[in-house]
Design goal:
The structure is a single chain. With about 1100 residues, the protein is mostly helical. It has 4 domains: about 400 residues, no CATH class; about 210 residues, Up-down Bundle (Methane Monooxygenase Hydroxylase, Chain G, domain 1); about 250 residues, Methane Monooxygenase Hydroxylase, Chain G, domain 1 (Up-down Bundle), CATH 1.20.58; about 150 residues, no CATH class. Helix 2 runs antiparallel to helix 20, helix 4 runs antiparallel to helix 16 and helix 22 runs antiparallel to helix 23. The protein starts with a helix and ends with a helix. This is EF-hand domain-containing protein. Its main location: membrane. It is a multi-pass membrane protein.
């Protein structure tokens, strides 16, 4: 592809072939062979640069760039045709008394050459250009259409044509992944600002004069139209090179990728099923298997992203009839890609079930019977998936899959066989509750396998229902939807308004610099357009690539061009060397572009910067030429300086106007994801473990959209934001850990997969109930509190145990999600890992004290919490704890309700609550002390430390026993008394233990004075881990206990049993993922 682009650039460079009639000394002379003598805009290297920006990896993507360029540039052209038809530019009148009236000459310039500025023209046209810019940025056009429209409008308006491409407001830095036309202005710097520039483009020492036919309104409009044609010609050349030497169609690539995707899915399926059925080790002990599965899933996700992008490219090929010639149906392949994506999600659920499996004794007994049946399912799955792939490749509109019925029958047979095996196993006298509980994950594995099969089985109905319309119908639908988007209020959010405002301000400042500092040079505002974004991370990544590309594309090519331009005779040597250097540099730069990776954008920038330098025409070899060799070198290196100014300007605008940190945006996205995951899990788990009623269709549809659309989009956005945040400078903030947040995203994806499985489980169960496969009236149901549910366990019923366990688990999961939501909020954005861990320990201690899961603790529960917090502080007297609790409630319970919520507790901590324990360890004196110091000793001993402000201040005073006067003076004493005070300080709170060691001396040895106390601080909360997994295990034990009591498993239907087993096992998986997330959060 890189060689194709380099070849296209050489073709495009032919448009600027010099005319044989060109004479630099004449004012009106034909400059280019392929253009009329009235064309003076120049910028013909724009054609070659357009090839670089338009060329993509296949024909469809390149056609998309061509169409978007045509629409964007067309809008700018029409707008400027109207504008300059109405407004007449002011020019110098040689016949007037003062030909320079209204013109301002700038003499101190970086180029050492004075130039003119017409203030009236500048300030009249500027508002119209800005109106167009803001309007295009706000309207819901495609990204590249906006870039072309705004950029060309700025060029045509020419006060800031330098800001060619504007990836301003796009939230996810899409210019890195999609067609990025950005700033092509560097290719036509010599002709920049030619309309508003009052200097004569043919002789910069003179002003444009009234009556000159080159500068009439009619000729300006003709130049605009011809310039539009030059750019469009470049995009057409980029399409042409997609067919030479052979066509590169997205259709063919998509066919290949879908076939590979089918093989990849079957490989993962075989790997998981074989490992689960024929190995006897926990998956955590199989390191190589974990690594292989991780690699396979990563490859499957990347392939799915690639196929999704190719489907969009195929749409443009379909628009021009390419799919018809190749007998390809895009809609069918799109359905197949969705199928493969769903199958990968089901495989993740299978993998998750395998991770939960502990391979207890019952697992092997069941596997002896089920191994053959599962193997047959594997074979049938492979046959059906390959049959689907073959039918789609052949574009058959109606499917009659032969392997479908066989797979469906085999899966139903396996589930019922497992039901009977499980019942026989439970009849054995030596089977315990722990054994049955250990085998619950097998149910999750079987249903995940059933879900995998059902996804393929349902595909035939989905495929046959769809109406496969022709391209014209889809094109009309696309146009109609695009028009409707202009009227949707949701398309105009705050982000777009802020982005448009930032873009306008940055472009205005960049334009002012270009006009008043850099003599109409477009480099500075074009750099602003390159790096502008809505959040610092995405823009910074663009900045780094932009600067790197400019350096790579300007330094060395400038040196080559300096020496090549001096080879005037023979002329063909100059042409050959220029084209050879251009071809090599563009090919090398575009190789990095098509190779992908973080620096691919730098390759793109390097290619078009180098093309602009090599194709820059000069008159050094012509008689009476005005160019000089020194000027060629200076103009090339000036790009670096002006780009740096543009980058600094962008940073100032970004920091001054509503700056958005990519890292903070990522944290907010994670918060939103956690909230939706918690909501969906609570509905799926809570409803079916508290009620035997089915979920309504409306609620199921809302859950489907939430899981399959909303959360999935959030995770995709997080992946993009992670790349941007990783490139973001941290400055004074803590170091950003990309690995940590990648693990968070992976766990969020696993939670989504788990919730998706529960959703499919509930939907499958409701489908079976609806079609009368399940008789809900004749089966035992743990969710119904009837008399039969009671068993002899003191005064406790099995139902009550189950209800209490599920209630506690739901409350704990909700609390865990709330904790994680808080930790990803703004409060903890700069928190150290120790602070985060301390907060989680406080939260867990509070939760443990909240026995009834009400979210509030009373005096009795406060007592338990304080004892837990100060467990490391030493012993507490039973009589004093009541006083401590009373003082705690006085300080923390603001509303006087007699209960303390966690919010009140944390608010007290944030407002200065400090829990402090002071422990005095005293040793016998080594020498005698004067008697008159006794009172001072005691007074000093009872004084609080200088660092005050404690809620609980525990003083442990140890008096020395006098029974043995010969006892070692270093012996410590074990008698202790405590004193308590309560106080709320304005200082932000901490929870610490301060241990004091003091030595006091007197003559009798009966009193002590604390001298030179030694202090140390350490954490005191005696909470090492959250108990969510323990709660999940208790809930599972309660469920199994109910199931085995009085052989209830014989009265539970297969569907109900599978539903309950999978819900319990799935809940255990959610707990495992939440614990993993909590461990990740507290990691550095």
């Amino acid at each position: 592809m890189a060689l194709r682009v380099a070849f296209g650039v050489l073709i495009a460079s032919a448009v600027q072939t010099r005319s044989s009639e060109y004479e630099p000394g004449q004012e009106h002379t034909k400059r280019w062979a392929l253009f009329p003598d009235w064309y003076y805009f120049g910028g013909l290297s724009y054609c070659a640069v357009a090839v670089i920006f338009s060329a993509k990896s296949n024909t469809g993507a390149t056609i998309r760039e061509m169409c978007q360029a045509f629409i964007g540039v067309g809008m700018a052209l029409i707008y400027n045709l109207i504008l300059f038809s109405v407004y007449t530019l002011r020019m110098s009148n040689p016949n007037s008394e003062d030909p320079e009236k209204g013109f301002y000459q700038i003499t101190r310039t970086f180029s050492s050459s004075a130039y003119w500025v017409n203030l009236h023209n500048f300030y009249v046209i500027l508002p119209f250009i800005m109106i167009f810019t803001v309007g295009v940025l706000l309207l819901p056009f495609e990204t590249n259409t906006k870039k072309f429209a705004v950029g060309n409008n700025l060029f045509f308006g020419t006060f800031a044509m330098c800001s060619w491409r504007l990836p301003i407001f796009y939230y996810y830095c899409e210019w890195l992944t999609r067609g990025t036309y950005l700033v092509v202005i560097s290719g036509f710097v010599p002709s920049a600002l030619t309309i508003l520039n009052p200097s004569n483009p043919l002789d910069s020492s003179k002003l444009k004069s009234v009556g000159d036919p080159l500068f009439t309104a009619h000729n300006i409009l003709n130049n605009l139209q011809l310039y539009f044609f030059v750019g469009f010609l470049g995009t057409c050349i980029s399409v042409f090179i997609m067919f030479v030497p052979y066509p590169v169609f997205a259709v063919n690539r998509l066919r290949e990728e879908t076939e590979k995707g089918v093989e990849e899915v079957m490989e993962i399926l075989n790997l998981i099923v074989d490992s689960y059925c024929f190995k006897n080790k926990n998956v955590n002990d199989m390191v190589f298997l974990k690594v292989q599965l991780h690699r396979e899933f990563t490859a499957a996700e990347e392939r799915n992203e690639l196929m999704t992008a190719l489907v969009e490219d195929v749409w443009w090929e379909q628009l021009f009839g390419i799919t018809f010639m190749l007998k390809f149906n895009r809609s069918m392949f799109k359905n197949q890609i969705n199928l493969l994506s769903s199958l990968v999600s089901d495989l993740r659920s299978l993998n998750h079930a395998m991770q939960l499996e502990q391979y207890e004794s019952l697992h092997f007994e069941c596997m002896k019977v089920l191994q053959r049946e599962i193997y047959v399912i594997q074979v049938r799955c492979g046959e059906l998936l390959h049959e689907i792939s073959t039918e789609v490749q052949n574009s058959n509109k109606t499917l009659q899959l032969r392997a479908l019925q066989q797979l469906e029958t085999q899966m139903e047979k396996t589930l019922r066989l497992y039901r009977s095996v499980q019942a026989r196993t439970m009849l054995k006298e030596n089977v315990t509750i722990q054994d049955v509980a250990g085998n619950v994950p097998l149910n999750l594995f079987l249903f995940s396998l059933n879900s995998f099969c059902a996804t393929m089985i349902d595909y035939q109905g989905i495929h046959n229902k769809k109406k496969y319309a022709d391209s014209s119908v889809r094109a009309r639908s696309f146009v109609a939807q695009t028009i409707k988007d202009f009227y949707y209020g949701i398309k105009y959010d705050r982000l777009k308004f802020v982005g448009a405002f930032k873009a306008s301000v940055a472009i205005c400042f960049g334009t002012i610099l270009a006009v008043y500092v850099y003599a109409y040079s477009s480099t500075t505002p074009s750099a602003v357009a390159f790096v502008m974004g809505n959040h610092f991370g995405g823009s910074f990544s663009i900045t780094v690539n932009r600067v790197g590309g400019v350096v790579a594309g300007s330094v060395v090519p400038s040196v080559f061009q300096f020496f090549i331009s001096q080879v005037c005779h023979p002329q063909y040597v100059n042409v050959f060397l220029t084209n050879f250097a251009l071809f090599v540099w563009v090919a090398g730069s575009m190789y990095f572009r098509f190779a992908g990776g973080y620096g691919n954008y730098a390759g793109l920038v390097s290619a078009f910067i180098a093309a602009g330098i090599f194709l820059k025409q000069s008159d050094v070899c012509y008689k009476d030429g005005k160019d000089a060799f020194g000027g060629i070198a200076i103009s090339s290196y000036a790009i670096l300086a002006q780009t740096s100014v543009g980058v600094i300007l962008f940073v100032l605008v970004e920091l001054a106007l509503c700056p958005e940190s990519a890292a903070n945006l990522l944290r907010h996205e994670i918060q939103e994801t956690l909230g939706k995951l918690q909501e969906s899990f609570d509905v799926l788990f809570g409803h079916h473990l508290s009620s035997a009623n089915v979920i309504s269709e409306d609620d199921m549809e809302r859950l489907r959209v939430m899981l399959e659309v909303d959360i999935s989009k959030l995770i995709v956005r997080q992946e993009k934001l992670l790349l941007e945040a990783d490139a973001e400078p941290t400055l004074w903030r803590p170091t950003f850990s990309a690995q940590k947040y990648q693990m968070v995203i992976n766990n969020s994806r696993q939670l989504l997969s788990n919730n998706n499985l529960l959703f499919k489980l509930v939907r499958w169960f409701q489908f079976r109930v609806k079609h009368h496969n399940v008789n809900m009236m004749d089966t035992a149901d743990i969710r119904v509190d009837d008399d039969d549910n009671a068993y002899n366990d003191g005064d406790t019923k099995s139902y009550n145990k189950w209800a209490e366990a599920t209630h506690e688990f739901r409350a704990s999961v909700k609390d865990a999600f709330t904790t994680l939501h808080t930790l990803f909020g703004d409060t903890f954005v700069n928190a150290e890992p120790d602070q985060t861990a301390l907060y989680m320990q406080i939260k867990e201690a509070f939760r443990l004290a909240d026995k009834d899961c009400s979210g509030e603790i009373d005096a009795g529960e406060v007592r338990v919490m304080l004892q837990s917090i100060f467990a490391q502080a030493g012993s507490m007297k039973e009589g004093d704890i009541v006083q401590y609790v009373a003082e705690f409630m006085t300080v923390v319970d603001k509303d006087g309700s007699g209960k303390v919520s966690f919010e009140e507790f944390m608010e007290a901590l944030e407002n200065g609550l400090k829990l402090e324990v002071e422990v005095y360890h005293q040793r016998k004196p080594k020498s005698k002390h004067t008697p008159n110091s006794k009172n001072k000793d005691l007074e000093s001993f009872h004084q609080p430390p200088s660092r005050g402000g404690t809620l609980l201040k525990i003083k442990e005073e140890q008096s020395m026993s006098q029974d043995d006067p010969n006892e070692s003076p270093f012996a410590t004493l074990d008698h202790a008394t405590m004193n308590v005070t309560a106080e709320l300080t304005p200082k932000h709170g901490e929870i610490k233990v301060r241990t004091f060691s003091a030595v006091s001396l007197n003559e009798s040895g009966t009193s002590f004075q604390p001298l030179s106390p030694m202090r140390r601080e350490h954490k005191v909360i005696n909470v090492e881990r959250c108990s969510l997994m323990d709660i999940a295990a208790s809930m599972k034990a309660a469920y199994v206990g109910w199931l085995m009591q009085d052989r209830r498993y014989e009265r539970v239907s297969m569907e109900e049993l599978l539903l309950l087993n999978c819900l319990v096992s799935g809940a255990e998986g959610v707990a495992l993922n939440l614990l993993a997330l909590e461990e990740i959060v507290v990691s550095p």
